[in-house]
TrEMBL record:
Gene3D superfamilies: NAD(P)-binding Rossmann-like Domain. This is Oxidoreductase. GO terms for molecular function: protein-containing complex binding. It comes from the Bacteria. Residues 3-109 form the NAD(P)-binding domain. SUPFAM superfamilies: NAD(P)-binding Rossmann-fold domains (SSF51735). InterPro entries: ComplexI_NDUFA9_subunit (IPR051207), NAD(P)-bd_dom (IPR016040), NAD(P)-bd_dom_sf (IPR036291). It comes from Mycolicibacterium fortuitum subsp. fortuitum DSM 46621 = ATCC 6841 = JCM 6387.
Length: 303
């Protein structure tokens, strides 16, 4: 797994170990990986995906691998779009040389537009870089906003809704979005690793509810027990709002800017949904209300 120290990756490691899988985690800093409770139950190797020599050496050290989860991204860093594509190409080449059968990549929805943010355009470019002639088959899962405690997008939502009693609501806050709970993201990632269940290809993953960014703020405020007033305003464009908002958010300014700029586009599922090949988890997919309640609950760090 490449990206095991991230929000999704760290949780996916736990799920895979519970399922009896042998997991190898790869990253630039083994010290960072050692902070996780599962560290002594996995094999850890040092891998700098931006360096083809490091990437090839890591795969040689690991030995035979059936499946690679590619969850790494450099959003928020200078020049991340080109760096992400370069890193993905290095991993694809090393995977091909190592005889890897499948790569599962978690990216985002990519709306049809000629003016995509670097964040959105970069997700599709990474998927393309992972595909090489004669290389591993690729499953690309695209998700919009992931609801769960610790998800960067959800924490931005939480921070804004908790601290500002009156929220300006530009027109783009009415854009449609198909969010998904972290529990259901993990369900689909595990299923995507099974070639006999999920054919190679691109799939959008989402929960059962369609809402808007404004609706998400209202739902969060209701469930958190706070009252928030949203006031419709004309403008500013998401790019302008991103640069202003970044200074007020408790995350790196570059990351906030890249994420908020992406709000200019509706984030709704467009490609074939994975539900055509993967059954829903027991009890069904979590609604927005259920996902937010889990994130706000006493076990929110696991939600």
């Amino acid at each position: 797994m490449i990206g095991a120290s991230g929000y999704v990756g760290s949780r996916l490691v736990s799920v895979l170990l519970t399922g009896g899988h042998r997991v190898v985690v790869a990253g630039r800093s083994l010290d960072k990986l050692a902070d996780y409770g599962w560290f002594h139950d996995v094999t850890a190797v040092q891998l700098d995906a931006d360096d083809p020599l490091s990437t090839n050496a890591a795969f040689e050290q690991i030995g035979p691998v059936d499946l690679v989860y590619y969850l790494a991204h450099g959003i928020g860093q200078s020049g991340f779009r080109e760096a992400d594509s370069r890193a993905a190409a290095n991993v694809a080449a090393a995977s091909q040389a190592a005889g890897v059968e499948r790569i599962v990549y978690l990216g985002g929805f990519v709306p049809e537009s000629e003016s995509l943010s670097d964040h959105l355009a970069g997700r599709a470019e990474v998927a393309q870089a992972l595909r090489v002639d004669g290389g591993p088959e690729v499953v690309w899962l695209g998700a919009a906003l992931i609801i769960g405690s610790g998800s960067t997008s959800f924490e931005i939502l939480r921070y804004v809704a908790d601290r500002f009693p009156v929220l300006p609501a530009p027109a783009w806050m009415g854009n449609r979005i198909d969010p998904i709970s972290i529990r259901d993201v993990l369900h689909y990632l595990v299923a995507a690793g099974e070639s006999d269940q999920v054919p190679a290809g691109d799939y959008d993953i989402c929960g059962p509810d369609v809402t808007t960014y404004r609706g998400l703020v209202a739902t969060y405020a209701r469930l958190a027990g706070t009252r928030r007033l949203t006031v419709p305003i004309g403008g500013p464009a998401a790019g302008v709002a991103a640069r202003v908002s970044a200074a007020a958010l408790p995350i790196p300014a570059g990351l906030a800017t890249d994420l908020i700029t992406s709000l200019d586009h509706p984030m709704s599922a467009a490609r074939e949904g994975i539900r055509t090949v993967v059954p829903d988890p027991p009890g069904g997919l979590l609604t927005v209300d259920e996902a937010i309640r889990r994130a706000l609950g006493p076990d929110g760090s696991q939600a």
